[in-house]
Design brief:
Layout: H1 6-9, H2 13-19, E1 24-29, E2 32-44, E3 71-76, E4 80-86, E5 95-105, H3 107-114, H4 126-132, E6 149-152, E7 161-164, E8 178-181
Antiparallel strand pairs: 1-2, 1-6, 2-5, 2-8, 3-4, 4-5, 7-8
The chain binds a DNA duplex through residues 42, 44, 50-52, 55, 58-60, 74-80, 82, 84, 97, 99, 125-128, 166-170, 188.
Length: 190
DNA sequence: GGAACGATTGAT
DNA sequence: TCAATCGTTCCT
């Protein structure tokens, strides 16, 4: 499996969020490999009030303004981490949040890391998939086109995409920037 | 220096 | 429906 090249990420963020559906998130960690099919994403755009980068660069969000194809991992609610991929051109603070995966490989490792058995509880939610894949704050700013954590092209035909509003935000809650594979059983909310 | 809050999750 | 839990951001 080959990582998607930087050219994939260096495009319109909304387009990247849609085209990430069906691709494979891969982590070759010391504990073992995990693979999941990306089934749900959200786009966060410059000028979008819900975007961490909308009020300028800070120590936390600086990676969003850097080159595309890098990881933005942030800590939230005092206990969880979320994983994003940086998109668009360098200097533009945009990213795509990975919200849910369909578990493909390494299910027992995911179960061990999560402390749960049920399939839909392994990677259904942004903080859940981070835990299942062993992603930590150490992965923040890492290059997703060269390292052990990467995204591989979709092995499937382009899916039907459902477009709706994002979850867990206040400002910008009406914008149609959440995308998931229509009919997929592994999205984060019913 | 201090306070309010959050791109969530899991239990009640 | 609500508590857990703490780094980041913004205000004083």
């Amino acid at each position: 499996m080959q990582p998607l090249p930087v050219e994939f990420y260096a495009r319109d963020t909304t387009l990247v969020a849609k085209e990430l559906l069906g691709t494979l998130l891969v982590h070759r960690s010391p504990e073992g490999i995990t693979v999941g099919r990306i089934v749900e994403t959200e786009a966060y755009l410059q000028g979008d009030p819900a975007c961490h980068a909308s009020r300028g660069m800070t120590p936390r969000n600086s990676v969003m303004f850097g080159p595309p194809g890098h990881a933005y991992v942030y800590f939230t609610y005092g206990m969880h981490y979320c994983f994003n991929v940086v998109t668009a051109s360098e200097g533009v603070g945009e990213a795509v949040l990975i919200r849910a995966l369909e578990p493909i490989e390494g299910l027992e490792l995911m179960r061990k890391r999560r402390g749960r058995d049920r399939l839909h509880e392994l990677c259904g939610g942004p903080a859940r998939l981070v835990q299942a894949f062993g992603i930590t704050k150490e992965h923040n700013k890492k290059d997703l086109t060269t390292g052990p954590l990467f995204i591989a092209p979709s092995p499937d035909p382009p899916p039907d995409i459902y477009i709706t509003t994002r979850i867990g935000i206040k400002e910008g809650a009406d914008l149609p920037l959440r995308f998931y594979i229509q009919g997929n059983k592994f999205i984060s909310k019913k």
